[in-house]
Amino acid sequence: MAKKLMDKVLSMMGFEDEITEEVVEEEHVEKEIDRFEESRSRRGAQVISIHSQKQMKVVILEPKTFEESQSIADQLKNRRPVIVNLESAERHLAKRIVDFVSGTTYALNGSMQKVGNGIFLFVPNNVDIAREAKEDTLNEKGLLWSAVGQK
Questions:
Q1: Same-domain check for residues 9 and 39
Q2: Which residues, other chains included, contact 57 with Cβ-Cβ below 8 Å and sequence gap of 6+?
């Protein structure tokens, strides 16, 4: 009887409810832990190859007009490396194209490399260009486009 009286007093004060809530919460947490461990053990059995990467395409373009520079920018936006051949383009046109595409490359956090006389490689940020230490791609003025279009 003393226990019932004590239970009534505790329940009036609100202590007994907390004790039952704690027991229910502990049971709920234990069930969740069991579910997590069970799902984790199932996932541990799966083997996933981390080296399965799609093959990347390199786009080679030889623009004849300035309007074609937008298609170069679109290729970069689609995360494809682009080789631009400006050997046969007029000097002024080649300079404008390189300026436009290099601005696009910069905006996309990509990089650019002069490969040859009038040939440039533009890559998006998901591609790295391995470079040699020498800077022979720049001429004596330090301009990448100065040799473009010379005939």
A1: yes
A2: 80
pTM beyond 0.90, yes or no? no
Q: Is the dihedral angle over the CA atoms 130, 136, 142, 147 positive or is it negative?
A: negative
Q: What percent of the chain has pLDDT over 90?
A: 38
Which residues have CB under 8 Å from 9's CB, separation 6+? none
Q: Are 98 and 149 within one domain? A: yes
Q: Which domain holds residue 114?
A: 53-151
DSSP code of residue 46: -
Residue 62 pLDDT greater than 90, yes or no: yes
Distance between CA atoms of residues 122 and 113, nearest Å:
7
